[in-house]
Amino acid sequence: MIFPIGDEQVKGGYKPLISYLLIVINVLVFMFQVTLPPGYEQGFVMTYGMIPKEIAHGQDYFTLFTNMFLHGGWMHLIGNMLFLWVFADNIEAVIGKIPFVLFYFGGGLAASAAHILFNLNSSIPAIGASGAISAVLGAYLVMFPASKIKVFVLIFFRSFYMPALFFLGIWGVQQFINGFISIVPSTAYTSGVAWFAHIGGFVFGLICGFLIRRRYESRYGYDMDSPSPRDLV
Asked: Is the residue at 231 inside a domain?
C-alpha cells in the first residue's frame, strides 16, 4: 500500500491556516463522536450523516455540510486528514483563504450530489471528508501536475518521490473503475465506500483547478508547471 506523506511545499512562508483548521475540526468532532456511548454514537451518525433518501425528499439539508466532519473510524479519519494535509496547502496558498473555504465546501456538495444521484433510495448515512478532499486532489492534479509527491511504500518500508500527475492520475482512475463496478448488479460489489462521492468531488476539483490555473497564468503570465510555482504567493 502507498501513502502520500509530503510534496513540494509552499514557498515564501505561507501558512495554510484554513487547511490546518479543517484538520483540527475533523479531529475534534471525531474525538467527540468516539466518546459517545454506542447507541448514542449511532444516533449521532444517523442525525448528522447525509442520507440520500432524506435529501431526495427535501429533508435534513444541513447534513450536506455536517457529514463532511464525521468519520467511520480511526483509519478513515487518518487517511482523509493525511491527504488534506499533503495536498490542500498549495491550493490555499494560490487562491487564498476565503476562496479555499468556498472551494472546499463546494467540492463536498458536488460529492454529495453525485452520491445521491446514484443512491436515491439509500437510507444509509454517508459520512466523511473524502468528497471534499477529492475535490482538492482534482484541483491539485490540474494546477500542479509536475509537483513531486513523496510517497511511503508500506511493503518496502521506504519512501520516494513521484510526479503528482502519475500519483493522482492513478488515484482518479481507480475511483472511476470502482464506481463503475459498484453499479453493475451482477458483481454484487459492496465495499462501504461512496465511490461516486469521490468521483463527484474529483470532477468538481478538476474543473475548478482548470479555471484557477487559467486565471492565475493569464493574470501573472506565469507557468504553473515551472519548478517553483508558489514563489509568487
From this structure: no
